[in-house]
Amino acid sequence: MLTATVRTYLDLVRFSHTVFALPFALMATLIALRFQADGGPEIHWPRAIAGILLCMVTARTAAMAFNRLVDRTIDAANPRTAGRHLPRGVVGTGEVLALVAGSAAAFIASTLLFLPNWLPLVLSAPVLAWLLGYSFAKRFTPLAHVWLGAALGLAPVAAWIALRGGRLADSPADILPAAILGLAVTVWVAGFDVIYACQDASFDAGHGLESIPARLGVPRALEVSKLLHAVTILCLAGLPLVVPQLGPIYWLALAAIVALLAWEHALVRPDDLSRVNDAFFTANAVIGLVLLAAIALDLWY
Description:
Oligomer: single chain
CATH class: Mainly Alpha
Helix content: over 70%
Distance between the termini: 45 Å
Number of helices: 14
Shape: globular
Order of helices and strands: HHHHHHHHHHHHHH
Largest sheet: none
CATH architecture: Orthogonal Bundle
Number of domains: 1
Structural class: mainly alpha
């Protein structure tokens, strides 16, 4: 019974999708760890990494559960999403609201108990406001995809601030590695969210919801996605400029990511969206893991 309940809640918040942002938080952590090894204040790394992981999981759970709560009526009206937990009555609104509140509280507590400086605690409320605010974005702006991208793009920036926040006042440029990673994640996520939203272009347009596919049409939306992913590659190509320890393995990984993004776009055509899930889940899940492995190898081996 307990196992089934936990599985239901994990499925409700699509826990497996944590793989999209978590690798980038870990990349920022590995880079910060390497910078610290080259000189800097000592940090209790096991505790800090545990704090970053807890913050990532709890903040994302709060945001995803809130999204399901806010969108329950829209989901019920959309044939593609009518089978989700709230429209089907598998879970109740009170349960989901409790999950949001508990996850948000756990996120704030994690910043206080596990992270080595005070900035994450101070920034925890604005971060939660941004994450939860995304759920309303498609009601008033077609740039909701960018809002979502920025929500995930906060992951490497937040991890960096958690570990090196005390140095930022003395050296603001210290945050450049995380900022570049954060921008790369923002445009990468926005790009694949545009692809995903193509499935609902007609529904969104007919129900007064904003998205790039609903506003521009699917063919032009797919071109916007390609442009966003081109910017992603440019951002990642610029990372070695501020992290000179990155070398051949990183560049090989970047070439693989270019190939994965090209494959992702080859799977989806304006007249055939049947393979959107392959493009969304398979290619994008692999990208973060490939880059994380390459950065780990180049920095530490």
